[in-house]
Description:
The chain is of the alpha/beta class. The chain has a single domain, classed as Spore Coat Polysaccharide Biosynthesis Protein SpsA, Chain A (Alpha-Beta Complex), CATH 3.90.550. Helix content is 37%, strand content 16%. The protein contains eleven helices and ten strands. The protein has a seven-stranded mixed sheet, with helices on both faces. α1 links the parallel β1 and β2. α1 runs parallel beside α2. It is globular. The two termini are 31 Å apart.
Amino acid sequence: xxxxxxxxxxxxxxxxxxxxxxxxxxxxxxxxxxxxxxxxxxxxxxxxxxxxxxxxxxxxxxxxxxxxxxxxxxxxxxxxxxxxxxxxxxxxxxxxxxxxxxxxxxxxxxxxxxxxxxxxxxxxxxxxxxxxxxxxxxxxxxxxxxxxxxxxxxxxxxxxxxxxxxxxxxxxxxxxxxxxxxxxxxxxxxxxxxxxxxxxxxxxxxxxxxxxxxxxxxxxxxxxxxxxxxxxxxxxxxxxxxxxxxxxxxxxxxxxxxxxxxxxxxxxxxxxxxxxx
Length: 277
């Protein structure tokens, strides 16, 4: 029985996923399973996962669904149903976790609490230089930090590293109390919680049909309605976000989210279970 389930959402980003899985192979905390939540059925992803299974680095399951447009929340719910542990960590397949990422989430877990992390946005050139070898020898954390700092000072905004401050780890509790927000917000690519909390709100709302809001803002809003607490693991659960063009949020998502906020109903009807309460 794994202590925690790491759920990775992915859509067609093969190279990024391979780097993410490589980073999971060097985690300091070992007792976890990986669930790859693929919104589609890409044969390259399947081949990558089968190769990973043969190495037996950690338990891994690959869940897929037909590619019928953006249905991330649907495959995330399927992953929650199949999770073999009671504690869930979520991140995206284009993010590279620090070697202490799983440890930071699991060791700081707390009852009725959502742990909220952040991410370092790598530049295009830094993302292109990311390799399996750099991850395996932890160079991406050592010299990578210097590259991030240098890039954050770059006057050329075309190759500017945003959120460079998120690359630092601060373990001193007093220092962290000065730097972190006591009431943090969910970022969909870096958060964790008890499975039972998600079950109370019936998981992710599958009525969201585009990126943005449905996998974080909506979840946060409904969890607050059941008095869940939110705790920052900023500068503890570090992850590096690979460069890609900015995702455009669907306007229909905001319209639907506004209706959710008006109703103030924590339990979504199109979620883990398809029944009302």
